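BUG: 3D viewer hangs when loading the predicted structure for this chain

Environment: internal workstation, default settings.
Expected: structure renders.
Actual: progress bar stalls at 90%.

Input used:
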Amino acid sequence: MGELGNEKLVAGFKLKRVASIRTPYGLLAAILLIVIACLGMTMSIAAERSLGPGGPPLTYGIDEVRIRLIRHPGNAALPAQRVSLSGSGSATLEQDGKTLSFTYEVTDLLAVINALYKIRFFDLPGDYTNQYSVFLKDGKTVETTALRMLDVNVMNICFTVAGYEKCVSYSDGQLPDLENIAKRIFSGANELLKK
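Structure tokens produced before the viewer hung:
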């Protein structure tokens, strides 16, 4: 009777549990629990105000956006080139010692912002200009050295909105996706100034 009695008891318990959920109050309680769980998940998503830790806000006005690019040539005797784009559609280009103003379509800025999101710009470290390596000292201690080439072009790109700023600096040959965005911005600025 030991095992057979337990099987009937377990089967009866399962039937009673299923039967109790199918009562009108049990069904109502189950639906209510599901609704509360869904609302809780929605509220926790809504409570997030930024794209991950240290990321930009999830919602902001396009007129609050500023994107700045600064290209520092490897030769200190040459001037830096700068492009500054604002969410209002106004922009400046500094090159050859001149500052030129121009306007652009805000949809073009939105395309740049989407390109930055696509390459996960906001997840990138802020500085790629230092190159690190390690060596073994005394046969037992690992030490780190940093190398920064002073004679290479360095690009600095900053995205600013609503009190948030993300900047990334990199040298020639690094971050080709970000460099393609920078080249498109500089060439687009030059094209708009020719008009």
